[in-house]
Amino acid sequence: MGQRVRLGFGLLVWLVADLISASSLGSLQRDSLAGTLSGSDLSEPRSHVHVPWIRLSGPRDVTMHPITVQCKEAKILVTVRRDLFGTGRLIKATDLSLGPASCKPTSSGAGETVTFEVGLHECGSILQMTQDLLTYSTHLSYKPKPSDSQVIVRSNPAVVPIHCTYPRTGNVSSKAIKPTWAPFSSTISTEERLAFTLRLMNDDWSAERTSTVFYLGEELHIEASVNAGDHIPMTILVDNCVATVSPDKDSNPRYNIVDFYGCLVDGKQEDSFSAFRSPRMQSEKIQFTVDAFRFAGDTKSLIYITCSLRAVAIDQAPDPLHKACSFSKVNSVWFPVEGPRNICSCCDIENCGNPEDLTRRLRPFFPVPRRVGRAAPSASDLNLPFEAQLEDVVMGPLLILDGARPPAMSKDQASGAGGVAELVLMAVVGVLSCMAFVGSLFLCQRRKVVSAST
């Protein structure tokens, strides 16, 4: 009887220890994988590929991923498995293309993979700049075409956004940097260049959003900003924003989101609540929300947003040409982020002025600060051309999907699940402790009986 108790107790202890060690190892592996995928090292080029039909619930097997991207010094290498959807059916290489320019594969053949190797600026890729990063964005398109003898296709078209991110500081090349003398005129030109950015933000505006995939019914949180550099403080304005299915803002179909020098006209639509965020948090930034949408009949489900951004002196008074106006459905009126309400009245008549009016009223907000050892700027340096104070910035491609986003476990649910697991573990430990105590008493009693009998 004593040997059975000891064997049973030992078996239970071994099972619990094995479970705890396996759980700890799995948690360690998940943490390690999360750290690898997060790409916290900003000193090296990084790639980001979002395949919409892959839903990962556990550790990702990179070798089985249908698309891999290598961001090189001046090129991007995209390798696509012909079993793109993981169904065992191989797609045709001729149905694949890269970027808005629809570049064809550089190598394919009868193998299981298709390869694209193109320059960073080729195939219509889009460059987005922030203070620290350069991001080249493109997309892989799959458009199945029927065979000559058929009029049907057996698979859906698909679009996969691809991004390559590079640090703006440092040298990503292994070659030596050759120092060069920059003439004073080119140095002044570089200093006078303004850095405009347009980026997606997360729901609480605290950080940049990493995913460019949205579902209908969600909101796009957009932030426009300007980096003044050595110049005096400035205020940024959004003159207009247009959505298209290609990076060309003049292409069709197109949809105006902001128009008439700062009127967020999308917010006046019956099914939209788009608006500028008020009050403005910083003069060099302006934020607004746009309800997600897609173009009817477009199979790609992709949109590009091009915004004309303009920087003005921080003391520029708001007026019909310098404004940010949203439409209130509650009161059926336009209201500005700053300034009197009447500056938005032109949004109703859809005429807030002409570009000629803007250039005539434009006043220089430069010069570049004079530095020790440099000559004083000339009169031409004090008056920048109008084009130097505005820029068209493209954001995209954004993938807009039908349906609702798959539900994710909330923080409360996650903490509740963790609490239940802890309670179960404590209960198991408690039961084992009781069994150990009872077993010890039983063994002691058994020894006393044996001793008395002998």
TrEMBL record:
This is Zona pellucida sperm-binding protein 3. It is found in: Secreted, Extracellular space, Extracellular matrix; Zona pellucida; Cell membrane. Gene3D superfamilies: Zona pellucida, ZP-C domain (2.60.40.4100), Zona pellucida, ZP-N domain (2.60.40.3210). Residues 70-332 form the ZP domain. Belongs to the ZP domain family. ZPC subfamily. One of its GO terms (molecular function) is acrosin binding. The ZP domain is involved in the polymerization of the ZP proteins to form the zona pellucida. The chain crosses the membrane at residues 423-444.
